[in-house]
Amino acid sequence: MTRPGRPVGELLRGWRRTRGMSQLDLAIEAGVSARHLSFVETGRSRPSPELILRLAEQLAMPLAERNTMLLAGGYAPAYPSHELSDPELAPVRAAVRQILDGHRPYPAVLIDQHWHLVEANPAVALFTAGAQSHLLTPPVNVLRLSLHPDGMAPRILNLPEWRAHLLSRLRQQAVMTNDPVLYDLHEELGGYPGGHAHAAPINDAVSRVVVPLRYRHNDRELSFVSTTTLFGTPLDVTVSGLAVEAFFPADSATTETLHTLATS
């Protein structure tokens, strides 16, 4: 790995401003003097690797960006980055497989930090049926598949609300990670047709609690609520970007339909 061009102080200052923190705020949270932090940001003082990691923790920086800041400071990366197929991540693969298989007959997918599909259980075929092949050619981006007119969008009955929910979530993730790939994806998806969400949610029990996915399958309306599962204590860059998106039936009719489809 090569040392990045931007100095550690510049990177630190950029992340601090992204988080809306003053030098004093960050210094207090990290247990250092504001003067020393100022010297680090201006390049007058070289931070130790321990200080870099402490500051990165307070700024909730992604693990990959913590490695980048360590490299900028002249130190080795602290967090490994394996391929999911590597032997070291065998326990992770086994855990994910158990989650996906255990969620059947309901749909569940494993995605990476850029919303690319990594794995899925068979029930996801419910969502991919009818999508054009260019959206199903790897790497498949599940957000693009969801909102593109050639994907799931024509069958999402509450597309304005679901679209607004996904775009809001993507925007928050882009801000938190400061990832240009996510900003570009947000801009792309925002240009797809889909209308605007209503000022007030649909007046039913589910919509008063969460934004459901209302999906047309053949002549039936299916209703889902979704959950996201993350690895709680990741120490690997790859693992830190993984998430399981699982869909649960929001009503008894959807439950019955999914069980019927699984046995047909």
TrEMBL record:
PROSITE patterns: HTH_CROC1
Residue ranges of every copy of the HTH cro/C1-type domain listed in the record: 12-66
Domain of life according to the entry: Bacteria
Family matches, as SMART domains: HTH_XRE (SM00530)
InterPro entries (UniProt xref): Cro/C1-type_HTH (IPR001387), Lambda_DNA-bd_dom_sf (IPR010982), MLTR_LBD (IPR041413)
GO molecular function list: DNA binding
Protein name (Swiss-Prot/TrEMBL): Transcriptional regulator, contains XRE-family HTH domain
Species in which this protein is naturally found: Micromonospora cremea
